[in-house]
Amino acid sequence: MKKKERLLVVSNRLPVSLSTEDGKLIGRPASGGLVNALSPVLKNKGGFWIGWAGTHENVSLSTLREILGPVSEESGYRLLPVMLTKEDVDSFYSGFSNSVLWPLFHDLQSRCDFNPSYWNGYLAANRKFAKVLMKHTEEDDFIWVNDYHLIPLGKMLHEKKASLKASFFLHIPFPSVDIFMKMPQRKEILSQLIHYAFVGFQTMRDRRNFLDCLKVFFPEMHASGRGNVVRVRIGECNFLVGALPISIDYRSFAFLASSKEVVSRSKDIQREMFAQKYILGVDRLDYSKGIPERLRGFQRCLELYPELREKLSLMQVVVPSRESVGEYLDLKQEIELLISRINGEYSTMRWVPVHWRYGSVPRAELAALYRGAEMALVTSLKDGMNLVCKEYCACKGDGKGVLVLSEFAGAAIQLAKGALLVNPYDVDAVAAAIAEGFTMDDHEKKRRMRLLRKSIARHDVFRWVDDFLRASVGKKLAEFPEEEIPPLWPGLRPDGEK
Ligand code: ADQ
Questions:
Q1: Does the residue 79 lie in any domain?
Q2: What residue's CA is closest to ligand 1, atom 35?
Q3: For residue 268, is it within any domain?
Q4: pLDDT value, residue 250
């Protein structure tokens, strides 16, 4: 392999979380599935991560660099920021990405705002990503673009330099033809995707939907091959399309959940809940996650199965998300209203049916919550994969837990044998699944949990990374060479800046 080959990961957000402490903006490496998965790929391998730092509030590039410098040092790979203005964020991030692509690709077209001005903002922001990338990329770099915010990037790079070929992974679902056709920019989006060397989806269903859409607009399309990855030819575009389900760092979750601190904290949580058994819901605040539907299902359960009252609570943990998109604040209010109604109707002196935590929870606390939960309830209306259900199983080392999982989460395909699958729109079915999970004997719980854990352990996030690299460039993670990175800052200044 050529010496210079490096990995460049691009995503909308850099893996850094910024916060203000004592009036000063500081950065810390962010955690999360993608970061955990890709950090070892980039660490000490001369890698770069390019993305928006998540702020446009009067922060100059030089200040941002001062903040990102130490985070880069700590991470072992360079963080290169893309500067976005408030206008960019409005039309690119809140607009086209999260008011068109996100709802449409989750089959929720009635939530779309097809404001035509968003499209130009989407392209303009992608050009900014392309500019930063062009400045830092070298021949033979492997460029890995992540998610729906950056669909146009591959074609933009290709137009600047024909030899540059990037690979793309879509973390969210790809809709069926009937839904995809509603998007005004449908042909442009497809024309951009076919300029990647590899386009990866979470499931075979997403891949099939994509190929069906291509057939409508490019009838000359020719697909060949079998298995998870097929080759597609459309005119001069010759590329690969694959289905590669993402996963979690199973071992690190399992290890954390069995640590002394987490075991003890998980017992404390059970005591704090007055020794009630509890069902756990953990989500980003998002309408695609089906949180109101989950609450209605739980409410129906208390109505239909009164014997479960005072025995079972629902603990719903929600991390704030996309607060700049108005619909997300409405959702929070809807959830709070539903919770107060359920608690108002069913609470007793010694029992609160729904506990609600709004905010980001540290990893160890999350592991303790997972570990102590009798059941996890995942009711996504549609989900690319859903990592929460996998994290829950990884933390249930004692095997005494039940996963109730939406049929519409990508994970349902892999976890069908061990989970209780439900249609989240069917409140009676959700109620029945909760009751079934509660009364399931330990032997059956353990049998199912064993199946779930085995499958997740075998297909962990490192395997996903390897599969992605192998499918797109025929290499394994270990084949990317270890390389000393030169001093991070101030060596990398964009043109014209001091
Ligand atoms: P998300 O929609 O963000 O990701 P998901 O897969 O559910 O969805 O992952 C959420 C992550 O956030 C989990 O790792 C979870 O632990 C964490 N989290 C949730 N609430 C939290 C809280 N209160 N505190 C701390 N952490 C919290 C998109 C797609 C998914 C796909 C992933 C990865 O929508 O379908 O699985 O990308 O490809």
A1: yes
A2: 384
A3: yes
A4: 94
Q: Write the CATH number for 381.
A: 3.40.50.2000
The verdict on 139 and 90 lying in the same domain is yes
pLDDT, tens only, 140-196:
888 999 999 999 999 999 999 888 889 999 999 999 999 999 999 999 999 999 999
Enclosing domain of residue 218: 7-246+460-479
| Number of neighbours of residue 133 by Cβ within 10 angstroms | 24
Which residue puts its alpha carbon closest to atom 9 of ligand 1? 387
Nearest to 143 by CA among 232, 80, 101, 89: 80
Ligand 1 within 6 A of 319 CB?
yes
- Nearest Cα residue to 59 out of 29, 123, 14, 97: 14
Nearest CA to ligand 1 atom 16: 388
Residue 486 is assigned to a structural domain of this protein:
no
What are the two backbone dihedrals, phi and then psi, of residue 424, each rounded to the nearest 5 degrees? -65, -15
User: 326-348, pLDDT tens digit by residue?
Assistant: 778 889 999 999 999 999 999 99
366 lines ligand 1 (CB under 6 A): yes
Residues 464 and 341 grouped into a single domain? no
Q: Which of 107, 11, 67 is nearest to 488 (CA)?
A: 67
Q: List % helix, strand, coil for the chain (3-state, nearest 5).
A: 45, 20, 35
Helix-helix angle 442-458:388-395, to 10 degrees: 120
State whether the beta carbon of 245 lies less than 6 angstroms from ligand 1. Answer: no
Instruction: State the pLDDT at residue 253.
Output: 94
Ligand 1 near 284 CB (within 6 A):
yes
Per the prediction, the chain carries an average pLDDT of 90
Please give the positions annotated as active site: 171, 383
Shared domain for 216 and 273, answered yes or no, is no
Q: Is 386 in the pocket of ligand 1 (CB under 6 A)?
A: yes
164 and 297 fall within a common domain: no
Answer yes or no: pTM beyond 0.85. yes
pLDDT in the model for residue 498: 32
227 — pLDDT class (breaks 50, 70, 90):
confident
Cα 485 to ligand 1 centroid, rounded to whole Å: 31
Q: For a pocket test of ligand 1, which of 97, 101, 284, 395 has the largest count of ligand atoms closer than 8 A to its C-beta?
A: 284
In a shared domain, residues 268 and 170: no
